[in-house]
Specification:
Length: 282
């Protein structure tokens, strides 16, 4: 088997790097395109090599610094998470289980060294990133839903047009029309999930955001697990508003702590890599 890398004299095969490229490919391509770039095999390989080097260095550090777990503890891990050890020969699973437990313990030690953000740090982040805490304009909608397929789509469309006309000419009120005609009434009581910009396709959002309060939309088509036609009625339009610090605090504290933990892991990796001997095979 061709070797592609050596990390502190531990060989990493070409097959392992190719497997990592396969695992990363979809997320890598989405990320690069979202940031205005064009994916390349060379860059994807760089990402994959960096990942396998990082995994190898943390594995080596854990084995070197953490106590060896008992056979019993490793066996418990094997039984609880058998999926983690698929493809590993039976005679090697116990040692792999122990190594995984050592790596987890190393990560816990790194996290223990990270301080929770102070109140002043939380407030400063909130104040300097106010755009992150803005709730966008939101529509509260009621709807009449008809699930359709190719056989009944035209009929359902015409029925919804008739219902809209009856509502607008006061032959039936909206609440009665929803209860009598919406296929999803038993599930949602006629209330549609609140909508903000970007939640739905543009061709659906444009007419919804153009509605005046109390106005009923034209028939609109949505595609999800089931294709459906809808009449929407605007119940309320909520203006953009800033989430108060007190409401954002708990989530913000968790997010900043997790970011600090990730930064600590990256710092540890940089330390390990700086002292490692990494060779690329010819």
């Amino acid at each position: 088997m061709r070797m592609a890398l050596r990390v502190n004299d531990v060989a990493i095969s070409e097959a392992k790097i190719q497997d990592e490229m396969t695992r990363l490919r979809s997320g890598y391509e989405d990320y690069v395109r979202a940031n205005g770039g064009e994916p390349s095999e060379a860059q994807l390989r760089e990402w994959a090599e960096e990942d396998v080097i990082e995994k190898c260095l943390f594995q080596q550090a854990a084995i070197a610094t953490q106590p060896v777990p008992s056979d019993e503890r490793a066996q418990q891990l094997l039984e609880a998470h058998a999926e983690l050890f698929e493809g590993i020969p039976d005679e090697e699973r116990l040692s792999h289980g122990k190594e995984l437990l050592q790596q987890r313990r190393l990560m816990r030690e790194i996290r223990k060294g990270v301080k929770q953000p102070s109140e002043a740090e939380l407030q400063a982040y909130y104040d300097s990133n106010s755009e992150m805490f803005m709730m966008p304009e939101m529509l509260r909608l009621s709807h009449i839903c008809r699930f359709v397929d190719s056989g009944n789509k035209a009929q359902a469309f015409l029925e919804l047009l008739r219902i809209k006309a009856d509502v607008e000419h006061f032959k039936i009120n909206w609440v009665e029309a929803v209860e009598a005609n919406s296929d999803s009434f038993q599930r949602d009581q006629g209330l549609f999930t609140p909508v903000s910009q970007g939640d739905l396709p543009a061709e659906i959002e444009a007419p919804l955001f153009a509605l005046k309060q109390g106005e009923v939309s034209d028939v609109l088509e949505l595609e999800g697990q089931r294709q459906s036609l809808h009449l929407f009625r605007l119940l309320a339009r909520e203006a953009p508003q800033k989430v108060a610090f007190a409401e954002a605090r708990e989530h913000l504290e968790k997010a900043l702590f997790e970011q600090a933990c990730q930064d600590a892991v990256h710092t540890k990796y940089d330390e390990l890599k700086a002292s490692a001997v990494i060779q690329r095979e010819a």
